[in-house]
């Protein structure tokens, strides 16, 4: 499988704490004083009720990082004796994570802003946490706005300790059945991962809406969200965000170990892969021409707008229209 999104200096030239989880149950009558309207313990509710406060700017980027090389990437026999969540990075994986952090910092610094920060979401698996800790070496304390461990970002579950010969049989069956829908015994399918990523996406959208990662009193447009996770999970995240089809997902390749994909805020406020990556990179990743046309639209569209001409979710589903009818619709 191809290694994609190598973030070399040439590509980077192409385009230029810890958060508290607030409970959402209504506050009791004695939890907050009348002076604050009963909202002192609920900053997001205070934001919603304060009409004079400026709306937090959307983060400049959402950066998707795949963990560095792990022991399991080198030798699949590891999974027969080590629980998947406990598989560690190799020495090469540590080095990849450190370089990944430096590359992300160089990319951000090219913006020229002096108030930039990073906020991390991370899978609880050991190899993801080790990747986070090593890539974060590139950032001073003042640049890290916070971090949240997020179990929904974990790797696809292949079913506890994995017998190597049985996994060969299961993976061959997955190829026949379909990569997206095949569920491993005592484990998950990619469709199951899609369901939990849908929940995480809604959490992320809420965090962006209320500016949860913005330090008190700050409304910087130069916030960068970094999601440290796993190959399939990140592909599913992109599929869910951009509403790609199952067929389009099946054609995608894994991000390389210690590499990253950048969703950058476009001119209208939406996130597009084409703001940072080249069309050639995205084609290598597996994007089709129709997907690239949609990414071009994402560069200029505003949040909430719909792409009525999108071939991904529109005409491609129907076969009874004539070419003349299609031309009339254009």
Which tags fit this structure?
PG/BPGM_mutase_AS; about 325 residues; single chain; 6 strands; alpha/beta; globular; six-stranded mixed sheet; PGM-Related
What's the rounded overall pLDDT mean? 85
- Subunit arrangement of the protein: single chain
- Overall radius of gyration: 21 Å
Q: Main β-sheet, in a few words?
A: 6 strands, mixed
Helix tally equals 12
Question: In which order are the strands of the major sheet placed?
Answer: 3-2-4-1-5-6
Strand content: 5-15%
Regions with little confidence, pLDDT below 50 for 5+ residues:
8-51
Which term fits the overall shape? globular
- Termini separation comes to 37 Å
Explain this structure.
The protein is of the alpha/beta class and about 325 residues long. It has helices spanning about 10, 45-50, 70-75, 90-110, 125-135, 165-175, 190-210, 230-240, 245-250, 280-285, 290-300, 325-330, and strands at about 60-65, 115-120, 145-150, 225-230, 260-265, 270. The chain has a six-stranded mixed sheet. Strand 2 (about 115-120), helix 5 (about 125-135) and strand 3 form a beta-alpha-beta unit. The radius of gyration is 21 Å and the shape is globular. The model is unreliable at about 10-50 (pLDDT under 50).
């Amino acid at each position: 499988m191809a290694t994609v999104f190598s973030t070399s200096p040439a590509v980077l030239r192409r385009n230029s704490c810890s958060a508290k989880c607030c409970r959402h149950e209504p506050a009791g009558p004695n939890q907050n004083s009348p002076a604050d309207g009963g909202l002192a313990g609920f900053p997001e509710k205070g934001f919603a009720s304060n009409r004079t406060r400026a709306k937090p700017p959307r983060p400049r980027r959402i950066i998707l990082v795949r963990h560095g090389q792990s022991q399991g990437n080198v030798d699949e026999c590891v999974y027969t004796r080590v629980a998947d969540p406990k598989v560690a990075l190799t020495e090469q994986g540590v080095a990849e994570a450190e370089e990944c952090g430096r590359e992300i910092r160089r990319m951000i610094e090219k913006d020229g802003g002096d108030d930039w920060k990073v906020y991390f979401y991370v899978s609880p698996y050991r190899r993801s946490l080790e990747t986070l800790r090593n890539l974060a070496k590139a950032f001073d304390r003042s640049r890290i706005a916070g971090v949240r461990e997020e179990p929904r970002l974990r790797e696809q579950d292949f079913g506890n300790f994995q017998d190597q010969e049985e996994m060969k049989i299961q993976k061959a069956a997955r190829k026949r059945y379909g990569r997206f829908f095949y569920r491993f015994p005592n484990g998950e399918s990619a469709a199951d991962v899609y369901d939990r990523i849908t929940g995480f996406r809604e959490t992320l959208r809420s965090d962006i809406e209320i500016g949860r990662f913005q330090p008190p009193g700050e409304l910087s447009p130069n916030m960068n969200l970094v999601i440290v996770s796993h190959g399939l999970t990140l592909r599913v995240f992109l599929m869910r965000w951009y509403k790609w089809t199952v067929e389009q997902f099946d054609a995608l390749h894994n991000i390389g170990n210690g590499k990253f994909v950048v969703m950058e805020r476009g001119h209208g406020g939406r996130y597009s892969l084409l703001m940072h990556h080249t069309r050639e990179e995205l084609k290598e990743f597996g994007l089709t021409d129709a997907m690239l046309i949609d990414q071009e639209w994402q560069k200029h569209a505003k949040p909430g707008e719909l792409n009525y001409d999108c071939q991904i979710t529109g005409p491609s589903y129907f076969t009874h229209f004539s070419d003349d009818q299609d031309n009339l619709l254009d």
